[in-house]
Amino acid sequence: MEPRRTVSLVTILCLAIAVCVCSHAVEPSAGAGKFTLTVLNIPDIQRGAGLALVMQTPGGRMFLYDTGNGYPSATNVSGWACDHNSGRDLIAPLLRERGVKELDGVVISHAHYDHFGGFVWLVDHFPIRKLYDPGYEMPSQAGGHYGGELGHYAQLRQQFKQRPGAYQAAHAGDKLAWDDRLDVEVLAPPKEFFHERHPEKRSKNDPPAHYLLNANAMILRIQHGKVVFVLGGDIEAEDQKLSLLPSLPPGKLKCDVLVAPGHGIHAIPEFAEAARPKVAVASLFARWAKGIPAWKVYGAVGAKVYVTGVHGKVEIVSDGEGFTTKVEREQK
Fold first, then answer.
1. 202, exposed or middle or buried, with CB in 10 Å at 0-12, 13-18, 19+?
2. What are the residue ranges of helices labelled H in the chain?
3. Would you say the C-alpha torsion 256, 259, 265, 271 has a positive or negative sign?
4. What is the rounded distance in angstroms from the CA atom of residue 123 to the CA atom of residue 57?
5. What is the pLDDT of residues 172-195, one digit of tens each?
6. Exposure string (b/e) for 31-56, b if CB count within 10 Å is 16 or more?
7. Average pLDDT in the 297-303 region?
8. Per-residue pLDDT tens over the stretch 257-276
9. Strands (E), the chain
10. Mean pLDDT in residue range 25-29
11. Can you give the residue ranges of every domain in the chain?
């Protein structure tokens, strides 16, 4: 009788293990194996333009590339100009909808409030494992409101530097280890950064604290299987032509999906020809959307062009073989 009891216990144990394995296998996270990039629709608050991307990797990790508008205000009771902070009002609701309780990483392409303002709020309300940025610092003192922006961001960066492994300055050629099924490469800026060759030609409305930060915004290339995304930062037209394009090997910008540099305002044929995207997305409010060159310039190389102020939130999902695009408003 004793051997029969032993077999029975082993059998029960094996069945229990099988049930456990099966129950785990049928509960993958939503979108498992896919890469999802969502370009949020930043509202027009009469300041900046705004860019915020939410990315979910095939393994379910969550990353942000820029965090939208958030201009601190001493006069608005909320503490934010026009009572808007993209971290609080756009990013957090989307994360909660997806059941996300912490962020694996945040990329801040450069230290302008329309790109890191949402981060100011998120730092206090969501655990963030790691911060990535180019490590760029102005070679001279920035005046006016730009000085305040740069100083505020420097304080936030320092918080992450004080945590071991929580900060990484990344430059052209560096790889970011986000997911085994993604190849994430930094395309710009180079470690020595881009510099202005003809400052005398710049508009008075485009001071160094604006154009130099834009020129040295982090640009990423993300490859998921056969599908390539390029996140183009905020580099202006002149710097794309004179600095960025000469710094890259042929074919490096070629992509399926382009998040347009400079909000689509700074679209140039040379960049469009190098990238030749199937889809180009520009983050820009409706007030400026119709007149931007992105429509014509990227359309000329065969891209379907979306502008958030016109189409609303844009979500692109890759399975590694191809991708789908979903927008809130299918119109031009």
1. middle
2. 2-25, 86, 92-97, 113-125, 144-161, 208-215, 237-239, 245-247, 269-275, 286-289, 294-299, 308-311
3. negative
4. 21
5. 999 999 999 999 999 999 999 999
6. eebbbbbbbbbbbbbeebbbbbbbbb
7. 98
8. 999 999 999 999 999 999 99
9. 35-39, 52-56, 62-67, 105-107, 131-133, 167-169, 175-176, 183-188, 219-224, 227-231, 257-259, 279-282, 304-307, 314-318, 323-327
10. 36
11. 30-327
Report in angstroms the alpha-carbon separations of 220 from 188, 255, 266: 7, 11, 18
Radius of gyration over alpha carbons of the chain, in Å? 22
Longest dimension (CA), the chain: 97
Alpha carbon distance 280, 289 (integer Å) = 14
CATH architecture of 30-327: 4-Layer Sandwich (3.60)
Paired with 258 in beta bridges are 230, 280
pLDDT tier, 144 (very low <50, low <70, confident <90, very high otherwise): low
Cis? peptide before 189, omega within 30° of 0: yes
